[in-house]
Amino acid sequence: xLERIPRSFTSxxxxxGNPRNPKPRAEKPRDRRQPQAWLRAFAKTxxxxxxxxxxxxxxxxxx
Length: 63
Known about the structure:
By secondary structure, this protein is mostly helical. The protein has two helices and no strands.
């Protein structure tokens, strides 16, 4: 005769997907106030053409 299996050992059929979080969470929109990392890195690199233009503009005011 078959032994009675305790209920805790038998798992109910699980539907596909995550039962705890049935709906996939929508991606949060990127916070526009925080610039991307590449933009911060680019802003830190010196740009000679911009520096030269600032120096030329400053030289115009010397006389």
